[in-house]
């Protein structure tokens, strides 16, 4: 009789959801960066391997917090609880996810870099992290090899991105950091780097031998690559819009997007660009960030775009200045987006004064691990409307 009255001991899956999530909060792992492709240094000019590099739309994926993969493999209910708990942490604007107490006590709350400990791009990207999932894109970035440089095709999402879709597919806010090459910034310039297909077409040898057949009897005529696209191409076939649209098609719930386009300070000062650095990409700024959404994709309610010039000073200190900031908010009940834009000179003395005030607050604020809110914001002075 006593045996029938006695109940079975509770298991993790039989506990209330609040208790299960409290237990899961003790198992949170620290932030991590997933490298999406095989890392070939863009400046590795001595690379003699002729194997084609694997390139994808996304280069790196930063997750502020995550749960151990072995827990996700126990059962479906626990897997759903873990993904739902992690999603709520990432979607909440007030949640500052931290590793569990066990990891904090063990002192393992250290950042995991993707490649080597001194990766410059990853240090600069981490400077702009603000507890949001971040996806890094490389748009029209050339890869330098021993025989020259070329711009690879980045068409498909990476396997890491696809494997993280159970988590990423539930996000409502996401951040994109973009490293754009000269072809994107100077899309109307005559000195842009040709695509790989254009280079192959231009490299055909002029054949004038007597034994040629009728198909190649006429000598080939060299034609320069047309690097000046029409206004329609810039608006509808922009490489950044293609990349963003490819990823957003897999993120049906995303309604708020932040886009930071980073430009190295040396490129900002030395590239053959007009004084208004964003003049050639104004059509992209005036239009939607990506293609029109597909049926299963949510309409973007809020978009923030920033053009930022960056530099790594020393081994860990980051110089970062915004020279264009644009905030786009969809008006409720209307198919219209209100756009507010502000610009400034990133090397003006006014913003340098802001840095000096922060340095006087104490050595704690001048540590090598700077935060995103240390970057001076740009006031939004110009307002206009555009259709969705």
UniProtKB/TrEMBL annotation:
<feature type="region of interest" description="Disordered">
    <location>
        <begin position="347"/>
        <end position="376"/>
    </location>
</feature>
<protein>
    <recommendedName>
        <fullName>F-box domain-containing protein</fullName>
    </recommendedName>
</protein>
<feature type="region of interest" description="Disordered">
    <location>
        <begin position="211"/>
        <end position="234"/>
    </location>
</feature>
<feature type="compositionally biased region" description="Polar residues">
    <location>
        <begin position="225"/>
        <end position="234"/>
    </location>
</feature>
<feature type="compositionally biased region" description="Acidic residues">
    <location>
        <begin position="348"/>
        <end position="360"/>
    </location>
</feature>
């Amino acid at each position: 009789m006593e045996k029938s009255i006695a109940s079975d001991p509770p298991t993790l899956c039989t506990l209330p959801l609040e208790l299960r999530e409290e237990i899961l909060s003790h198992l949170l792992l620290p932030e991590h960066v997933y490298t999406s492709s095989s890392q070939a240094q863009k400046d590795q000019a001595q690379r003699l391997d002729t194997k084609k590099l694997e390139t994808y739309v996304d280069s790196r994926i930063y997750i502020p917090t995550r749960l151990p993969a072995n827990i996700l493999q126990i059962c479906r209910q626990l897997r759903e609880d873990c993904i739902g708990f992690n999603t709520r942490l990432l979607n909440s604007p007030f949640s500052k996810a931290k590793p569990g107490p066990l990891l904090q006590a063990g002192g393992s709350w250290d950042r995991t870099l993707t490649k080597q400990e001194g990766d410059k791009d990853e240090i600069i990207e981490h400077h702009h992290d603000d507890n949001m999932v971040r996806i890094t894109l490389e748009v029209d970035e050339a890869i330098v090899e021993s025989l020259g440089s070329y711009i690879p095709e980045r068409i498909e999402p990476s396997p890491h991105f696809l494997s993280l879709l159970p988590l990423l597919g539930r996000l409502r806010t996401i951040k994109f950091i973009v490293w754009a090459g000269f072809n994107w910034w100077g899309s109307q310039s005559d000195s842009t780097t040709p695509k790989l297909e254009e280079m192959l077409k231009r490299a055909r040898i002029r054949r004038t031998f007597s034994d040629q057949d009728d198909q190649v009897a006429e000598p080939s005529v060299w034609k320069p690559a047309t690097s000046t696209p029409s206004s329609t191409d810039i608006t509808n076939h922009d490489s950044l819009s293609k990349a963003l649209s490819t990823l957003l098609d897999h993120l049906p719930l995303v309604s708020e997007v932040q886009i930071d386009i980073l430009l190295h300070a040396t490129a900002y000062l030395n590239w053959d660009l007009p004084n208004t650095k964003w003049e050639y990409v104004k059509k992209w700024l005036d239009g939607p960030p990506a293609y029109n959404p597909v049926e299963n994709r949510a309409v973007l309610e809020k978009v923030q775009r920033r053009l930022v010039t960056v530099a790594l000073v020393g081994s860990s200190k980051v110089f970062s200045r915004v020279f264009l900031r644009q905030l786009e908010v969809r008006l409720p009940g209307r198919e219209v987006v209100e756009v507010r834009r502000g610009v400034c000179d990133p090397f003006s003395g006014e913003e340098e004064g802001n840095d000096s005030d922060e340095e006087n607050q104490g050595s704690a604020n001048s540590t090598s691990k700077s935060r995103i809110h240390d970057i001076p914001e740009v006031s939004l002075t110009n307002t206009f409307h555009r259709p969705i």
